[in-house]
Protein 1
Amino acid sequence: MRNLAKLLGISSGNPEADKSVPVETVEMTDESDAIYEVQHINPEDINPNPFQPRKTFNDESLQELASSIREFGIIQPLLVRRTPQGMELVAGERRLRASKLAGLQEVPVIVKEMDDKEMAELAMIENLQREDLHFLEEAEGFNQLLSNFGMTQDELARRVGKNQSTIANKLRLLKLPPLIRRVLKSENLTERHARALLKLEDPQLQIQALDTIHQKGLNVRETEGLVEDILEDISREMSKKKATKQNVVKVIKDVRIFLNTINRVVADMKKVGIHIKVNQEQDDEYIMLNLKIPKRR
């Protein structure tokens, strides 16, 4: 995976910046080799990134970062862009949230012009470089890049440094209904739990399986066993229904043989001049035949 700072074209202008000294100037090594000055703005004036894939943040981790920021300040500036609605965050969501928790009145930012596609890509890569990005948020982020910006899976895989098969497998998780995905997050279940549930195409069965997983605290192996048991039960039930249907069809075919025989007899009687009248009715259980044969021709 490409380094985020390299992708952004950012390098610190102060060799001591990675220690405990806030950065004040930053070089952007883009095509123009321009040097961007760090600005300081109120964190409340920064609008959130609409393409942020991470939806959940660890409160304890944010409090720890806020404590560090109170003591040392923000080491690396946030990246923002200008929009008609004001400044919009590009990268640095955790730093922005922690800064608000720390009560900072201003934060260092770098303003860079970029379009929606570049912004969404940078937000995704920034989060992928943090190992705690939830697998469903990762899948949703991939889907956003594909659907909003016309990327192919191969192109996306190259951009984020992953195999195309990895991208495809992540996207399959989005076939799970939103309710199931919310429970997976709230119960802190793993990606392998989610993959097991994908085998149950019926959402009701998925919910039942999730309830069992929650009640019994099933691990991945036990969950996979549960899903296999459910699938076997479904297969047996389908086999029974198929056998019942075949028996019903066989009986119906036998009845038709008798009816055809009766119809042939009726036809023969009419041929010899017997004016026989036939009335046939049927319901769910019976076929009723009413034959009227005159005593005389």
Protein 2
Amino acid sequence: MVEKRVQPLARDAMAYVLAGGRGSRLKELTDRRAKPAVYFGGKARIIDFALSNALNSGIRRIGVATQYKAHSLIRHMQRGWNFFRPERNESFDILPASQRVSETQWYEGTADAVFQNIDIIQDYGVEYMVILAGDHVYKMDYEYMLQQHVDSGADVTIGCLEVPRMEAVGFGVVHVDENDRIIDFVEKPADPPAIPGKPDSSFASMGIYVFHTKFLIEELRRDAADPNSSRDFGKDIIPYIVRNGKAVAHRFAQSCVRSDFEREPYWRDVGTIDAYWQANVDLTAIVPELDIYDKAWPIWTYAEINPPAKFVHDDEDRRGSAVSSLVAGDCIISGATLSNSLLFTGVRANSYSRLEGAVVLPSVKIGRRAQLKNVVIDHGVTIPEGLVVGEDFELDAKRFRRTESGICLITQTMIDKLDI
């Protein structure tokens, strides 16, 4: 990893987080909230990772563009990210799609979500713009990417993740030369271009872009004047710069933040029920791939005032216990047994119930004798006494949202339809 400059570039940068996406592949989990607002890791929301990366990198001006069902997301940011102070040259702007440019126009694409707020960006007078997706889980120091951008003289620097070549078919893929200059950018190619010297690997775009602010504004205005544009970074802005300017790839491994316990660079798109369940359950491992206990790079979030978790009863078949599990504050495990499970704030698990591989969102009540395996339970659900999930796959599929790999998403609406 390269040495940082004495004077960090991050202090003259603005992080602009694109957080307007629905995340439809998460199904009912995003019926009431945008994907960046979905809970993750026992305490946080998904967006907290991008925001924490920006803050920990030294960036003190942040804007967040919201659109789809944004109330939960906005409320979270108002509560958990309200500590920025203008007198310290800090700012945190929540930028809903509010028809500021046209009375009939919402954000038409990711580029348009920045274009419509150009005046706000200009008011801050920042030298650099770091454009971020608000729906990925990772730890990254953006200062290294800013330094590469300046040193290379690039028009745009794109954060890139090295993936097995044939797994790149679902990504935007960058084709680079031996100097990491991008010579082509293709969305979801059937035959992804390989990294020079690594025929079995490709670079997938992480949706992270660094620009000089002046150049970005010029490009956004040019794109906005193009009637054939879809107003999107990945589809329009980036391919245009690749063809007509200088685009450079930044290797995630060079700026990924890792504690002593993290062996490989960690990045996850938790955009499906399976991926969301897996990433949360992975945290219950003895040495998880993602270290959320790393105090050198904290994941900032809304810190609720809650009592500690509580475990009660100690009979042979009625013992409040948890093995290889994460249990947040204000949970009461009353004679229930947990294994490889993650419980968010305020969960009540009652006697004789058993949870294995369960991701339980806040304020869920688990009835007595419930047996739940490989489930994601939405916020505020009341699980009836004696409910069994994870044993009869056909019955599960009729009652709940069951994936092909056997993970069941459970919502209150699904519970209300049960004939039990």
